[in-house]
Amino acid sequence: MAGAMSTVIYLLSISKPIRIAEVKEMGAFEVGGKKIKLPPPKLKGVMSVEEAIHRRRSKRKFYDEPIKMEQLSNLLWSAQGITDPVNMFRAAPSAGATYPFEVYVVVKKGGVEGLNAGVYHYIPHEHALELCFEEDIVKELTFAALNQEWVYEAPINIVLAAVYERTTWRYGERGERYVHMEAGHIGQNIYLQATSLGLGTVVIGAFFDDRVQRLLKLPSDQKPLYILPVGKPRE
Fold first, then answer.
1. What is the pLDDT of residues 176-191, one digit of tens each?
2. What is the dihedral of CA 33, 36, 41, 47, to 10 degrees?
3. Could you report the per-residue pLDDT of 98-141, keeping only the tens digit for each?
4. What is the CA radius of gyration of the chain?
5. pTM of structure
6. Cβ of 51: how many Cβ atoms within 10 Å?
7. Domains, the chain
């Protein structure tokens, strides 16, 4: 009976979203760099969800053109933007609202109008970018991604890094599966948002984890899981 009761209590505990303060205590990353406020995301577009799903394709060839700051704003909002300022819920679903992902943008020289080349960290609750460091690392990132040329061609690469402990402390080993599921949720959001903006992307999982982690100067508890090159497609 005691075992059954503890199971019930556990199930009840995992059904309640985690407090945002608890998330910040685990794997929070403060780079302390210059902050760039992003334009507010546009919540109404010219393309329906149905059309975006129909048109969505993986794109691997990009024009040598910068993306606009407004486009970057919507891409990042679709990945991890705040959609409920009261409960701090985000655009992609997360097990227990534990939100294990940090989002980074690798900008090549001339990749984004008004931004210098460098690595930037997205801050969801401020809808802002924080500069990690200024340096064009796209060649090195391409090498770390097994020389997949679309990484080099794209004006930006979005990198999703997971802090597993934010989810596994609550769900145990099962939490690792939830983190990987969430990566897919975020990736699909970026795909559909890119499509609706006339842009394209492709998800990349083939890369040297340790090289990407060192290249972006990520903390030891942040593990890169996805690289998404984004740009205006040539195909």
1. 999 999 999 999 999 9
2. -90
3. 999 999 999 999 999 999 999 999 999 999 999 999 999 999 99
4. 18
5. 0.87
6. 14
7. 2-231 (3.40.109.10)
